[in-house]
Amino acid sequence: MIRMPVFVALLLVAGIASAAEPFDDKFRQLEEVLPTPNTIRNAAGAPGHAYWQQRADYTIRARLDENKRTISATETITYHNNSPDTLSYLWVQLDQNIFKPDSDARMSATVASREAWAKARSDEDGMRFEGMRSILENPGFEGGFAIGAVKGADGKPLRHTINKTMMRIDLPQPMKPGARLSFDIDFSFNINDAKVQGGRTGYEKFDDKNDLFEIAHWFPRMAAYYDVYGWQHKQFLGAGEFTLEFGDYDVRLTVPADHIVASTGELQNPGEVLTATQRERLQKARTSSKPVIIVTQQEAEAAEKSRASGTRTWHYKARNVRDFAFASSRKFIWDAQGYKKGGTDTMAMSYYPKEGNPLWEKYSTQAIVHTIEQYNKYSLDYPYPAAISVNGPIGGMEYPMISFNGPRPTKDKKTGELTYSKRTKYGLIGVIIHEVGHNYFPMIVNSDERQWTWMDEGLNTFVQGLAQNAWEENYPQSRGEARTIVDYMRSRDQVPIMTNSESLLQFGNNAYAKPAAALNVLRETVLGRELFDFAFREYAQRWKFKRPTPSDFFRTMEDASGTDLDWFWRGWFYTTDAVDVSVDGITEYGVSTKNPEIEKAWKKARKDAEPVSVTTQRDKGTARRVDAHPELKDFYNEHDDFTVTNKDRNKYQEAVEGLEDWEKALLAQGKHLYLVDFSNIGGLVTPLVLEIELKSGKKTIERIPAEVWRYSSKRITKLIVTDEPLVGLTHDPYWETADIDNSNNAWPRKITPSRLELFKTDRTKDDLMKDFNTPLKTK
């Protein structure tokens, strides 16, 4: 766009009303909503000088029984009470108990509506075979933890009470501030079929009789205890995910001897579980500029055809992580590539069965490296030694250093041809970026997912969009940009973003898409990239390896950008208001020059521009008496109200004699002034982004801050001054504000194009005789 100097001002227009409407201050501060700052979380949104958080270290010995599809294990948890509080009991998460038939998640499940259940509009929203199988088979699955001994370091039993997905351990002696306590838990559980029971973990069985295991939330884990909520022991219902304590892990995983294990952490015993060739390939991969195959497809296919009788133990250690997950299968192909830059020195690795190729070998590890490059730019340097993507039954789920991702090519059952759709390709790249990106939010910036899903999913989806834009031009974005959230913002079944994770009506839109779109609006339209990027990175740096709350994010963004954004958080995060700005009307004004030669000519042009009456049109050419008798014409037949007289000229001379030079120059400028009326129909205040089109065809963009609505959040009038006539004005020309109705954004109004589909009449429909006589197909 060509930028021209355009003056835009605010006019306060007084309206006449029988009674004043209550003033709705969209810019009132959030102090009434946000918690009061203190020494733990300060007013700038940073950890205060008294900030504290708990810690939990784990030593786990686990065995995977492939035939029985079970995990049995024992763990030692060392809990560090860094709080100023004395604790008489501890809470432990038992998230596997969500698979118990009587779990709250199962028992509280409902259908969306009777209509959605029985009257699906298409196969996309109808009940599928898989869905009905899950409904019928889930009650028969014996899921959940079987908790054995719970005992202290002295070997004595600890009294404990299981409350569904939580377990309280009563301490024989209160745990004082600064104390450390170790205790042991023996446990086992049946691994769920991920295709039947669903969830974020499970196994996948293949036609070749082999299984692939993706194992997560598989051990009793310490519940979070922190200053805002105390114990975070909300029941696990499925939507609200996890918030956990950081700690060190020492884990030994005993699996079938021919399995390859992908895991959180660093492998401690490669000489015991990897061949010399595999170790050599791994070393090469560390400095390679492209992925190196560690286990080839040929080697994986050979392993599929035979089963080892023994077992092998893989030993992993992880430092300063909040969780631990792993995957195990003899079907795994494995590739890796090192990445070292700045504070990051890691191995990007992918594990996938042959069913994932050719898609996975081409894109997975490349997508991991790309994610780290981009997320490092916008948040913090990736600190862990590994970043892993595993292909299995879980569509997309994240854990420290490892993620489970689902998309695969399809194989034609007749020809064996492998193909994949555009949606599958970009779905794979996108889900890997998203899940690997979760290492940053919330695996490092450790927000409380069980309380606020948007704090990890929304922020991560936003950065995912930035990373996808850096993958290739015109990457097919489904979330992030403002235009992608418009349909949701129009819908009725909404709750504010600031709603607990288990109470969201449209989970994907509310927790992922709307927060991401809001942050895009904040970055592109409200703050600008420089201010936003500095503030966002400051948030990540302040809160890495700590537990931020929404107020910490809001305050940090304001503090680091130097901008009052309370109106933004209030509108986008605390309400379901939408952006809908209407351009209601425009009136043109010119500054009178006082010169009668100019002013009367202007008035005459206005008169001449008026429509000619029908009577005058039809009388045109009619014989007139004065034409037949010209002697009847006089002075008034030659002059009219627009004739400039000497009196006019004398008056003008008298008027300008008392003016100073700058006042004379002002009269001669010939500016065009336009009063533009705007209505805020949607209720969500927004910056005005105005595309102003002039008579010459030149266009300019003027960006007016949202504070333009501060005195009236419903109606305002703007003054626009131009050097030449204005012929068109459009609000939000780039669809960057998520305005839900573009039809009222322009003056003059624009015609909306559409299409009418015509259909041929089907005269054979419901022809019973024809249907009866149709030849029966035989195999």
TrEMBL record:
Record's keyword annotation contains Amino-acid biosynthesis: no
Protein name, per record: Aminopeptidase
Listed PANTHER family: PROTEASE M1 ZINC METALLOPROTEASE (PTHR11533), PUROMYCIN-SENSITIVE AMINOPEPTIDASE-RELATED (PTHR11533:SF174)
Signal peptide positions (record): 1-19
Domain Peptidase M1 membrane alanine aminopeptidase span(s) in chain numbering: 367-572
Transmembrane segments: none
Annotated Pfam families: Peptidase_M1
GO molecular function: aminopeptidase activity
Keyword Hydrolase: yes
Keywords assigned by UniProt, alphabetized: Aminopeptidase, Hydrolase, Protease, Signal
SUPFAM superfamilies, per database record: Metalloproteases ('zincins'), catalytic domain (SSF55486)
CDD domains linked to this entry: M1_APN_like
